[in-house]
Amino acid sequence: MSEAMIQISGLSKSFGPLEVLRDIDLEVERGEVVCIIGPSGSGKSTLLRCVNLLEEPSAGKVVVDGVELTDPETDLDAARRHIGMVFQQFNLFTHLHVLDNLTIAQRKVLNRDKAEAERVARHNLERVGLAEKANAMPAQLSGGQQQRVAIARALSMNPRVMLFDEPTSALDPELVGDVLGVMRQLADEGMTMLVVTHEMQFAREVADRVLFMDGGGIVEQGPPSEVIGNPKQERTRTFLARVLDPTHTHVAD
Ligand SMILES: Nc1ncnc2c1ncn2[C@@H]1O[C@H](COP(=O)(O)OP(=O)(O)OP(=O)(O)O)[C@@H](O)[C@H]1O
Ligand SMILES: [Mg+2]
């Protein structure tokens, strides 16, 4: 199949009178890593949440791996199985051991038996460098380790696409690198990824394409060397000046 993994067309989303996404068109190729940057409130999370229909679009079409999620006939639960999502807050089950966090959805949703689910779980814990933490409780792990468990949990469902919404922004700075390292490895393995992030260095090094969003639309997109390295739009330049130098308070001349 040569069609794009994610095909979004004419996507709009309003909350009451507030128009949050305006007529977005976006295709993400198989194996492509797209980073989304932009100011707070620009609609980044809403766009990501529309990809798996956690938010219902007001208009437009979302197709993932050939399945139209916006078609009312589509079995959404089935379609979502192929879409992994990792949030800023790790959303682990705090009362379950790491291993159980990774096996519960495999068993309930994919009907894997206990032995198979545990085999997959241990394989994915190893991928994120946490094989020895299978029997730990989430509270016994650092934030970075918890986020890597959350990634391993998503991977245990054999996703075809991974969505990340600011996966490192709740972490202490010294824990960010390990999580980005795991994401970089996933990208190298060919995972299709849509990543909302403020980590410009990661975006520069790992993204095939960077989107700058503002006011519910895609203002500028292209290779990171262009969008981050040499932005064409004034709004992109202003945003980057603020992100790259937080002490910078006014617009550059
Ligand atoms: N469930 C909701 N109900 C009403 N308004 C919402 C809802 N979710 C988001 N919004 C509004 O939509 C706009 C876009 O929000 P969104 O979370 O997508 O922004 P964002 O770009 O992810 O911002 P941030 O960088 O702060 O995470 C904001 O004005 C927000 O207040
Ligand atoms: Mg957000």
TrEMBL record:
Location, primary (coarse class): membrane
Cell location: Cell membrane
Membrane topology: Peripheral membrane protein
InterPro entries for the chain: AAA+_ATPase, ABC_ATPase_HisP-typ, ABC_transporter-like_ATP-bd, ABC_transporter-like_CS, MetN_ABC_transporter-like, P-loop_NTPase
Keywords, alphabetical: Amino-acid transport, ATP-binding, Cell membrane, Membrane, Nucleotide-binding, Transport
Xref: SUPFAM superfamilies: P-loop containing nucleoside triphosphate hydrolases (SSF52540)
Gene Ontology MF: a single term: ATP hydrolysis activity
SMART domains with a match to the protein in the record: AAA (SM00382)
Catalytic reaction equation(s): a polar amino acid(out) + ATP + H2O = a polar amino acid(in) + ADP + phosphate + H(+)
Gene3D superfamilies membership: P-loop containing nucleotide triphosphate hydrolases (3.40.50.300)
Record has RNA-binding as a keyword: no
S-adenosyl-L-methionine recorded as keyword: no
EC annotation from Swiss-Prot or TrEMBL: 7.4.2.1
Pfam (any one): ABC_tran
Cellular component GO terms, alphabetical: plasma membrane
Coiled-coil residues: none
Family per similarity comment: Belongs to the ABC transporter superfamily.
Protein's name according to its UniProt entry: ABC-type polar-amino-acid transporter
Organism annotation: Saccharopolyspora thermophila
Native organism taxonomy: Bacteria, Bacillati, Actinomycetota, Actinomycetes, Pseudonocardiales
Gene name, Swiss-Prot/TrEMBL: glnQ
